[in-house]
């Protein structure tokens, strides 16, 4: 008979009787009842802290602070109460001191937070020369549940942030007075700085336009300067030619006047002589009419010439050397003026170049001024935003930033997520061990008929173990499906988790089979003892380094330590070496347990007188 037939024969014993069949179903469901129920009720307790009743007592009487001659009333207690109402860390119960004391004593409240009457007064002292530290009282009662106090302490930092924020807002009020007005003033200043920045930007554009225009002016002025210089050079050349002529003309002018007078006299005499000749020749009857007419024409032309000579003589005689001197001076002034124009034009060009450079410097300066105005606007906006709000809802939302200005950037390489998911490896391992403990209270460890027959000891031992192993696999699968579908275990590697759970149940049932086979009822006691030792040494709840030395020594010797480490990897992630190590250790325990069970079976086949006594059964 093979081990599988022995296992089937053992399971057939439970057919046909409802109670026996129910017993098999019960042991299959034991891990689910133990592990599943515990994980269910403890899956995410910290996610429901807002359902824990906590009393809050506000005894603060407020205080008054003088700032710049103005009195400002502050009340840090009211500020804190309003913030707590906006942030439901716990199920807040705002009550008086007597009700809080009674509720804490009777277990109606897990904690009491008391704001003393001098809370605001002490906060107000922070603005003076003799500051006092304000206090907030936390009262617990471990008689209502020690773990409840531990849970409350886990959110103490968040609660402290709310308290610190209330203190921060109140203290800022004592220093700056009405925070709303301060915020509005800073906001208006920031708006003004923005407008200044915009205006400077417009001026900067104008400066750039001016710079461009002055560049054009500089170019034109330089062209004018070049032209004026050329004109000055031409005038110098002209004056150089005309000046000697005028000076010579001025020196000989008297002679010219004498000659002009003589020419005028000669012209008059010639004109008079022509008239005399005409009278002599043409007044007789014998005169030649044609010749006289021709002569008259000559006389008329001579009269015209004489008039011109007389007019010229008159002009020459009326023109003095002063006029020529003035003409010489005018030419000199023209020369000097042309030089001055050229010099002035060059100065204009130089001034235009300087103005262009200045306009560029102005544009650059306006750019820096605009940057400064923008920085000022940004700084004022930041300052306005940093002024604490007088709205408790806003303060509650900002409590984390106000209460803890510096945050710790924490990174979890393999986050478990919820409390229950983090403890799932530990309680799955315990549940599977409990199956081995309970399974062989119902199942027989060995087939008595096979023990007395010719079958070898190894098949008999394996045949006694297989029923528990088979039911254990079913139990492990039921537990996994319940936790996965019911609670959302969502392991990192589902197949590895299932496969590891199957190997664990095979190993644990083999160990339970060995102890039960070898020691009977005492074996059940040993299984309980091993359970206790593994609970305390597996490192499932606390780091093994924090436990006493005794448990640190046991930690690497017992299989549950490796099971917990491996399940953490398959569920949350981590080093695969932990899984490999667990597989090797579990395989060694499995093979070793089956080998020892075979030796126990072989030893029991040697009949002794004591073998006839019925052993104690549980």
From TrEMBL:
Tagged with keyword Repressor: no
Entry membrane topology: Multi-pass membrane protein
Residue intervals of the ABC-2 type transporter transmembrane domain: 24-166, 294-598
Region of interest (Disordered), ranges: 382-401
The keyword Cell inner membrane belongs to this UniProt entry's keyword annotation: no
Transmembrane segments: 21-43, 423-443, 464-483, 495-515, 522-542, 582-603
Keywords of the record: Membrane, Transmembrane, Transmembrane helix
Predominant subcellular localization, coarse grouping: membrane
Location of the protein in the cell: Membrane
Xref: InterPro entries: ABC2_TM, Phage_infect_YhgE_C, Phage_infect_YhgE_N, T7SS_ABC-Transporter, xxxLxxG_rpt
Protein's name in the database: YhgE/Pip domain-containing protein
Organism: Glycomyces tritici
């Amino acid at each position: 008979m093979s081990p599988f037939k022995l296992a089937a024969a053992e399971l057939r014993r439970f057919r046909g009787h409802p109670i026996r069949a129910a017993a098999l179903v019960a042991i299959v469901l034991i891990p689910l009842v133990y592990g599943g129920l515990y994980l269910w009720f403890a899956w995410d307790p910290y996610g429901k802290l807002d359902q824990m009743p906590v009393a809050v007592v506000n005894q603060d009487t407020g205080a008054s602070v003088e700032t710049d001659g103005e009195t400002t009333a502050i009340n840090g207690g009211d500020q804190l109460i309003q913030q707590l109402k906006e942030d439901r860390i716990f199920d807040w119960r705002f009550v008086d001191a007597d009700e809080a004391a009674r509720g804490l004593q009777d277990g109606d409240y897990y904690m009491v937070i008391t704001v003393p009457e001098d809370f605001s007064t002490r906060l107000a002292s922070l603005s003076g020369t003799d500051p006092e530290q304000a206090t907030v009282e936390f009262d617990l009662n471990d008689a209502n549940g020690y773990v409840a106090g531990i849970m409350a302490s886990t959110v103490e930092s968040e609660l402290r942030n709310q308290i610190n924020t209330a203190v921060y807002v109140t203290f800022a009020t004592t220093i700056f007075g009405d925070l709303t007005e301060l915020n509005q003033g800073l906001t208006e200043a920031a708006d003004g700085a923005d407008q200044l920045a915009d205006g400077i930007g417009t001026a900067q554009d104008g400066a750039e336009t001016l710079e461009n225009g002055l560049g054009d002016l500089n170019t034109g002025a330089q062209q004018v300067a070049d032209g004026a210089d050329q004109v000055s050079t031409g005038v110098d050349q002209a004056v150089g030619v005309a000046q000697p002529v005028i000076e010579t003309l001025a020196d000989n002018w008297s002679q010219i006047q004498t000659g002009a007078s003589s020419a005028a006299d000669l012209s008059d005499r010639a004109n008079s002589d022509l008239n005399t000749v005409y009278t002599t020749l043409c007044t007789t009857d014998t005169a030649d009419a044609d010749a006289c007419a021709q002569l008259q024409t000559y006389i008329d032309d001579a009269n015209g010439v004489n008039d011109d000579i007389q007019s010229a003589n008159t002009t020459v005689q009326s023109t003095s050397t002063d006029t020529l001197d003035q003409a010489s001076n005018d030419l000199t002034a023209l020369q000097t003026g042309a030089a001055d124009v050229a010099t002035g034009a060059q100065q204009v060009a130089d001034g235009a170049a300087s103005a262009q450079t200045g306009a560029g410097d102005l544009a650059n300066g306006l750019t820096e001024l605009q940057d400064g105005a923008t920085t000022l606007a940004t700084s004022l906006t930041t300052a306005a935003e940093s002024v604490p709000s007088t709205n408790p809802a806003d303060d509650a939302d900002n409590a984390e930033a106000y209460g803890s200005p510096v945050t710790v950037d924490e990174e979890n390489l393999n986050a478990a997520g919820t409390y229950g998911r983090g403890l799932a490896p530990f309680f799955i391992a315990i549940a599977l061990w409990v199956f081995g403990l309970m399974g062989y209270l119902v199942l027989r460890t060995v087939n008595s008929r096979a023990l007395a027959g010719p079958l070898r000891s190894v098949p008999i031992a394996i045949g006694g173990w297989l029923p528990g192993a088979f039911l254990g696999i079913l139990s492990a699968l039921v537990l996994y499906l319940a936790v996965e579908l019911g609670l959302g275990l969502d392991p990192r590697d589902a197949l590895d988790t299932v496969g590891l759970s199957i190997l664990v149940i095979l190993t644990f049932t083999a160990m339970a089979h060995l102890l039960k086979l070898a020691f009977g009822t005492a074996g059940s006691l040993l299984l309980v003892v091993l359970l206790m030792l593994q609970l305390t040494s597996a490192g499932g709840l606390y780091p093994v380094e924090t436990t006493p030395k005794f448990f640190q020594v046991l930690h690497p010797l017992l299989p549950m330590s490796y099971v917990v480490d491996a399940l953490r990897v398959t569920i949350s992630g981590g080093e695969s070496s932990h899984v490999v190590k667990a597989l090797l250790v579990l395989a060694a325990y499995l093979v070793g347990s089956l080998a020892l069970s075979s030796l126990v079976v072989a030893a029991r086949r040697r009949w002794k007188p004591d073998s006839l006594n019925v052993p104690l059964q549980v």
